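Run log, item B.
One chain of 340 residues. Sequence copied directly from the ordering sheet:
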Amino acid sequence: MQLKKKYNISAIFIVIVTLTGVIIGIGVYGCKKAVLKEEDTKRSVSLEDKFYRQTKIAFASYRDGNFEIYVMNADGSDQTRLTNNPAYDEYPSWSPDGKKMAFTSNRDKNDEVYIMNADGSEQTRLTDNPACDAFPSWSPDGKKIAFASNRDGNMENMEVYIMNADGSEQTRLTNNSAPDVMPSWSPDGKKIAFQSKRDGNFEIYTMNADGSKQTRLTNNPAFDCMPSWSPDGKKIGFSSERDGHTDLYVKTDVYVMNTDGSKRTRLTNNSAMCSSWSPDGKKIGFYSIVKDKPEEPDNEVEARWWYEINAEIYVMNSDGSEQTNLTKNPAYDGYPSWSP
């Protein structure tokens, strides 16, 4: 079942998907075991809480009648609008120093990649092409941005590109007859994960940062999409329909796997997608569709725009436990990106 569509990159991507701490060290001398006192335990919890209050999560929200970029503390407090434009601003991606964000906007009549300061100031266009340029991802050294574009084909055939962080030297990395989208840079800067439909349905691939050695990691008749590297480079989070989730709105859930594609593990079971790791790797942000009108007939659901349905930003432990709603807003909140 598929929701009513609108012709912007968000709607196209949703249709593609639905179809297709601080570690407290304990010093030990010899065999004498150190014991944490009650006040030490309280202090460790306080330090961890402070860590998550200091980190931020950027996201896109439809709460103001069109998509805008927001930012909040990692505990959900202080939700602040950064962009204010009658067009759509989506898919935020933090620079590795936390000072800037790249994002996608159609404010100039088609989707382009922009950057801005972390407070929303100095919004600057990086790409300038009559085609669609979207889904930016910063390299870990901050010098490059990967993105997807259909400038060399049609809407059904986006490819992965990279450019300098100032928008110069835009270079194509993938070249095949199926769409390659949603690039995600590895923490060491050597690889880029992405999703590709080249084998008949969307699967997760990796390649070297120069486009060589494109390797398939997943192989499933269901759809695997939206890869995201863990900060230590040992895991990749992704979204998948592989377990037959039958929710009316979104059929994906969040999974993790090793970077060679092994040990794939399901973390959610509630129509979730788009994983984003906390900088310490202990937590994962994602968004989940909330069935906001439980008694609504299927035909009425189909008549609604996909962004008219309630979605919320959640965080969970990296093992899938303690899933917590952060946004608690009746509008669509999605595409979380955790700050460094």
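Observations after the first pass:
- The chain has three helices and 24 strands.
- The first strand starts at residue 56 and ends at 61.
Flagged for discussion on Thursday.
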